[in-house]
Write a structure and sequence with these properties.
Structural class: alpha+beta
Helix content: 25-40%
Order of helices and strands: EHHEEHEHHE
Largest sheet: 3 strands, antiparallel
CATH superfamily of the largest domain: Phenylalanyl-trna Synthetase, Chain B, domain 3
Number of domains: 2
Number of helices: 5
Length: 174
């Protein structure tokens, strides 16, 4: 995982040198395989072992540093309403998926992402595509929650059907 150090500092107060931060990560069991600098920004290549999926995000690593150092964790504050004006249905047809959640967000136009989002994604090894795709990738990197965005107007019957892909399934990727 590529970890931009400045992004990490959004969630935990770290004033140490990149060498010291690298050592701290190693001491808590996260192997820093390398460090690069891109436009003055330090980026660690962190090896996350399969038993530590909680560390596959910037906040996950910040939580580990907080546990090891006792420093204050600064988590984002979200204001989310549970009100829905439009219905859509989620049908789960797979024994491999026990939960699938969705949210309708309106008024978003496809376009280029702000430079700060593009920069963080690029430092994390992710190619910016457009604001909608970039937001889903940003949330994945920051929180560790995978997302997918659908165009509600293009969902047949406003239904999302979750199932196992068969051998004949064809789809278009980004």
């Amino acid at each position: 995982m590529l970890l931009p150090v400045e992004w990490l500092k959004d969630f935990i107060d770290i004033k140490e040198s990149t060498k010291d931060i690298s050592d701290m990560l190693t001491m808590i069991g996260l192997e820093v395989e390398g460090e690069e600098t891109s436009d003055g920004d330090a980026v660690f290549e962190v090896n996350i072992t399969p038993n530590r999926p909680d560390c596959l995000s910037v906040i996950g690593i910040a939580r580990e540093l907080r546990a090891a150092t006792g420093r204050t964790l600064k988590l984002p504050d979200y204001d989310i309403t549970d009100e829905f004006e439009e219905d859509f249905q989620v049908i789960i047809d797979s024994p491999f998926c026990n939960r699938y959640t969705g949210r309708i967000i309106k008024g978003i136009r496809t376009g280029e992402s702000p430079d700060w989002i593009k920069k963080r994604l690029e430092l994390s090894g992710i190619r910016p595509v457009n604001i909608i795709v970039d937001i889903t990738n940003y949330v994945l990197m920051e929180l560790g929650h995978p997302l997918h965005a659908f165009d509600l107007d293009k969902l047949r019957g406003k239904i999302i059907r979750v199932n196992t892909a068969g051998e004949t399934l064809q789809f278009k990727t980004l």
